[in-house]
Amino acid sequence: MPAPVISAHQLVKSYKVKGKPDFVAVDGLSFEVAPGESFGLLGPNGAGKSTTMKMIGAVSTRSGGDLQILGLDPDRYGPEIRSRLGVVPQQDNLDGELNARENLYIYGRYFGLSSKVCHERADELLAFAQLEDKAKNKVDQLSGGMKRRLTIARGLINDPRILLLDEPTTGLDPQARHVLWDRLFRLKERGTTLVLTTHYMDEAEQLCDRLIVVDKGRIMAEGTPASLIREHSSREVLEVRFGSDRNAQVAGQLAGIGDRVEVLPDRILIYADNGEAALERVTSLGLEPITSLVRRSSLEDVFLRLTGRSLIE
Ligand SMILES: Nc1ncnc2c1ncn2[C@@H]1O[C@H](COP(=O)(O)OP(=O)(O)O)[C@@H](O)[C@H]1O
Ligand SMILES: [Mg+2]
């Protein structure tokens, strides 16, 4: 096993809150990231994902535990670590007054790269981000997806070994998300280590080799998307709707069908290895759902199982 590029042990971050006990946003996270791996933190809003990313990025100090980035302690080697990471923060912080190419160039200069290297990399990265024809456009004129791609390009200007991406596609439309996923796949293929946070289960399934499911600052589960689903859910899920007034009332009659029944406000989920067979059993009880759907289990189901809550409220 090659040495991990990130290792966190019992990592804690607490925030001071006036007149109250400290608020613990990250509550003892332990994980390692191997070189070239694509590692995810999946969890709802407020889980502590951004707080963790800021500690990894050496822009926020930890309150407890151990943390090593590329073998270095961020408490002592902040500047060295920052110079070797690429960061895509949750909120884009591009300079809206500058054009796309200038944003890349200036950022490279901050890293102390020569003007020649900055010009070369700016062009390469504009091509990588598929923004060549927007090079001269002011950032304020770019779409959300383009800004996100430009922020990723900017994060790559120092040729980092690790790219940190905090909610890379939140707020983007499906098409813009797919373009971005394609770019991130390419980075992964080139061997860049990706650490990303998301509250989209499909994004985690698409991009992550391995992930931790985080809730309230704690790790609920860890594994590959497939192993998490295997461990915490059935193969298939039958979703049935009887109308908002009847779901809860009907649910009692469904006990014993499949491994588990979950009643949500708008639908009932029946966890079963064979969803079609489960549906036959439902209809054999004389129950006629308004709609029914059989699908494969997803990370959303894993999260629901582990926390009793839906990932996206
Ligand atoms: N600077 C801060 N001061 C106090 N509380 C904070 C601060 N930053 C984040 N928090 C709180 O810590 C928790 C985790 O926040 P965050 O890491 O941003 O979660 P996530 O990125 O998973 O949505 C939230 O409850 C948030 O309100
Ligand atoms: Mg966040």
Automatic annotation (TrEMBL):
Domain ABC transporter as annotated: residue spans: 6-241
EC class name: hydrolase
GO cellular component, one term: plasma membrane
Topology within the bilayer: Peripheral membrane protein
Gene Ontology biological process terms from the UniProt entry: response to antibiotic
Keyword set, alphabetical order: Antibiotic resistance, ATP-binding, Cell membrane, Hydrolase, Membrane, Nucleotide-binding, Translocase, Transport
EC number annotated for this UniProt entry: 3.6.3.-
Location within or outside the cell: Cell membrane
GO molecular function (one): ATP hydrolysis activity
Short name of one Pfam family: ABC_tran
Protein family per UniProt: Belongs to the ABC transporter superfamily.
PANTHER family on file: ABC TRANSPORTER ATP-BINDING PROTEIN, ABC TRANSPORTER ATP-BINDING PROTEIN NATA
Protein name as annotated: Daunorubicin/doxorubicin resistance ATP-binding protein DrrA
Gene coding for it: drrA_6
